[in-house]
Amino acid sequence: MQKKPGASTDQRSGSANGSGKADRQEQSSGPRYPIESVDNALKLLLMLRDRPAISLSDASEDLSVARSTAHRLLAMLAYHGFVRQDPVTKAYAAGPVLTEISFAALRDSDIRPKARPFIEELVREVGETVHLVMLNGTQVLFTDCVEGNRALRAGSRVGTRLPAHCTAGGKVLLAELPDDQIRELYRDEELEQLTARSVTTVTGLLASVDETRRHGYALNDGESEEELRAVAVAIRDPVGRVRAAITLSAPGYRLPPDQVPGVVAAMRRTANRIGEILL
Length: 279
Known about the structure:
The protein is an alpha+beta fold and 279 residues long.
């Protein structure tokens, strides 16, 4: 029997519509044909979004899989550079590939080219190193830097991550979150210490964050590195959203308490100028 004109076209149209609807349902409810090993590997990467490191037992417990299975997943992620294992603690932290992906994801909406001229001007004014930083879970990512012109100065940390609670930039960005969300990020009361002056508990972090909210800037007094002092302010776009922060670092003796207000004033002017041109 000869097909009626248009019959096959209608069928194709219906199939295409059905496929589009199925795709939309799949995006909202998950894939129709999930691959468990891939799903578990991605869950491990999501865990590192909110934690500085995960142990083998953490991975096994959170994924509800055997330790041997968790070990194979982490070993494969380490092989491709997505995670790295600490040789002492044996815990797994974000690897270099995740940092590269972070920069790639930021490329199109990157504020670095827009912020760079203003940061350079600020460094010429104050003579100290300034970083542009962003919050990534419980870590702060250093995305750009202009070093100061002093012989003894803070060096660039571009591409590295540090625990947010140990840095001025991390604390000023955490201050934008409500306390309950901060507690969700930090599941354990005890916090990692980088120096003897680092905040050691979530309760202490919340107190520091509250102080940051009151003052409108954050301080790091030897909490990430001995003898290093830093101050940070947030960058807000024209609608008030916090997009990043700038943090100024210097040897402690060159940033005494009586000089902080003047430095903060200069940094706020810079942050405001950057924020005004962000869309």
